[in-house]
Specification:
Blueprint (H helix, E strand, L loop, with lengths): L14 E3 L10 H10 L2 E3 L6 H16 L8 E7 L5 H14 L3 E5 L5 H14 L6
């Protein structure tokens, strides 16, 4: 595998994507590998009891490998299509409280102008609350 151009940050951060729609909760071996090796992970599940158990296993594997679990990043999707400000804030807080450090914001692409309006509203009404 190659990467070009090379990222400026060294060592190059290693993030693991995992799961699939029909099986969002990965096997324990995958969770252990994330804890031992990854700088971050991108689970497909959502916050909840099963997700908490996956996170617990990742953190336990990190500790067993002599790593600090609080240093692991986690990215999840924040879907904002058709949601009002209160709903977007609730979803963003749920992700934050679950331990998400990075969010991929997803909305329905309608037109460049509409996309810009959605992003302005999100930035002004949601992101501003997290600064």
């Amino acid at each position: 595998m190659s990467l070009s151009p090379l990222p400026i940050k060294r060592p190059i951060p290693l993030w693991f994507g995992l799961g699939r729609r029909i099986a969002p909760y990965p096997p324990e071996a995958v969770l252990n590998r994330i804890g031992r090796l990854a700088d971050g992970w991108l689970p497909l599940f959502f916050p909840g009891p099963e997700g908490e158990e996956c996170k617990r296993k990742v953190h336990a594997a990190a500790r067993a490998a002599g790593r600090d679990p609080s240093k692991l990043g986690m990215e999840m999707t924040l879907a904002i299509a058709g949601k009002n400000t209160a709903q977007m804030l609730d979803d963003a807080k749920r992700l934050r409280d679950f331990g998400v450090t990075h969010a991929q914001v997803r909305w329905e692409n309608v037109s460049p102008q509409d996309d810009l309006e959605v992003l302005k509203r999100f930035a002004g009404e949601v992101m501003a609350k997290f600064r």
